[in-house]
Design a protein that fits this description.
This protein is α/β, with parallel strands linked by helices and 408 residues long. The chain has nine helices and 25 strands. Helix 1 packs parallel to helix 7. The longest helix has 15 residues.
Length: 408
Amino acid sequence: MDHSDIVIVGTGHGGAQAAIALRQRGFDGTIAMLGREDQPPYERPPLSKEYLAREKPFERIMIRPEKFWAEKGVDLRLGCSVLEVDPQARTLALSGDRSMTYATLVWAGGGDPRRLTCPGAELHGIHSVRNRADVDAIMAELDAGAKRVTVIGGGYIGLEAAAVLRKLGCEVTLLEALPRVLARVAGEELSAFFEEEHRRQGVDLRTGATVTALEGSAGRVTGVALESGETIACDMVIVGIGIVPSVGPLIAAGAAGANGVDVDEFCLTSLPGIYAIGDCAAHASAWANGAVIRLESVQNANDMASCVARAITGEAEPYRALPWFWSNQYDLKLQTVGLSLEHDDTVLRGDPENRSFSVIYRKEGRVIALDCVNAMKDYVQGRKLVEARADLPADALADVSTPLKELL
């Protein structure tokens, strides 16, 4: 039977970084990396930004040139899905009636787009933004004349897609079921700013808008029906309502996990010899007061991959990386450091009217996170405040004449 010392499931940021880090740390055993897609490892954030905007071709978003993997002795197996995991025999059942054994398994399976469940969800012309094929399909529809686009979901993916589509000249309606966009990840000040910005850019942005059905003709979507009774006519729908962690084979094999798969401080699952990293891995975060969370970010995937590489090569260190995120919309660059979960107050630093400001989140007076819009210095210097859990008065944090680094 086919065997590899380390099998990495997933060719996203986490899977690719795990293979790179293992070789950088001198691991000389065999490594196989299995990917469901037919594409070599590539960056995912540009999909809703530069790639959709056609500012970067696919070759420029590849994590490494394709020949890199062979040069590093990584057996890259594309179009390959894992169907079953036998943790006792350390065997994988693969698509195509294949199987292989492993000594150590690194699960970096990511997630699949959460689908709409309302009537009409099976119509053609409804897209997600999760992989290259998704975005290629959207671009093909734009080329074919689609102009009216309804985006369902006011998270980062939905907002980024809306921004690009407006730049491309589309009529865009964005629907968010909650009372504000970014409600799960940001405070009210940031939500209000981005809502106003998108409306100023011509997006028909609606909050508290519940979709009840998708309407169509000849098998293709033509409208989005709302609970209010209104139907929004459209040529295409883009759905960005989160992901479902791709951990089915691990859970079926007995791994612990409710929202994804649970991992310990070294990213080990409850199954012997199996690690999990990235979007699908639920871990107790020191930056969330020990709460078990999943983080969907490049930073988390890469840092977890490095944690696993250290553990496999005999220099284990607990995963303690500080979370950070970013989003590009129009000419705005949002940079976030820390987790604003359970904050009890916010401090506004700067003036949103100037399109450069920061929202600083505190809990019991201590800085736990920052959202920085076109404010690179605040982001860089604020990181130190989050790491130190700095206990600082609101007026000092709000004073833009004093650099944040001087407050430590």
